[in-house]
Specification:
By secondary structure, the protein is of the alpha+beta class. 32% of the residues lie in helices and 45% in strands. It has one domain: Nuclear Transport Factor 2, Chain: A.
């Protein structure tokens, strides 16, 4: 299985809102790095994060472009998130179903046919401006 195929399955599950499908693509000890946030360790912590985010946002990744390093152990994705802000998180603006469009990117480390690290970047200030 190529890194590209694994990441395509991961994002297809994301777009379906299929958290179990996303979790099937990551290692048990996955590291999840998010800009302006901490690192989550393990499939359970990542799954809790995904469940929390699914309650707050309805999102779809579009215009996905994948890059794969030679050997398939690392990859990157550039995409645009089209979302709807459903429920407010503490410290964020009030949610009223506001739409947003946010360019983003993720970097992946792969091993044993699964994603072992996900590092995601997006412009938080742009998101706040769009939903405020």
């Amino acid at each position: 299985m190529t890194a590209r195929a694994i990441i395509e399955r991961y994002f297809a599950a994301f777009n379906r809102g299929d958290i179990q499908g996303m979790l099937a693509e990551v290692t048990a000890d996955v590291e999840h790095h998010v800009n302006q946030g901490g690192v989550r360790h393990g499939r359970t912590a990542f799954g809790e994060f995904c469940t929390h985010m699914a309650r707050l946002y309805r999102e779809e990744v579009r215009d996905l472009v994948l890059f794969e390093a030679e050997g398939g152990s690392r990859a990157a994705a550039e995409y645009v998130v089209h979302g709807e802000y459903l429920h407010a998180d503490p410290g964020h603006p009030p949610a009223r179903g506001q739409p947003y469009v946010l360019p983003a990117g993720s970097f992946f480390a792969l091993r044993e046919g699964r994603i072992g690290r996900i590092t995601t970047y997006y412009n938080v200030a742009d998101w706040v401006r769009q939903v405020s």
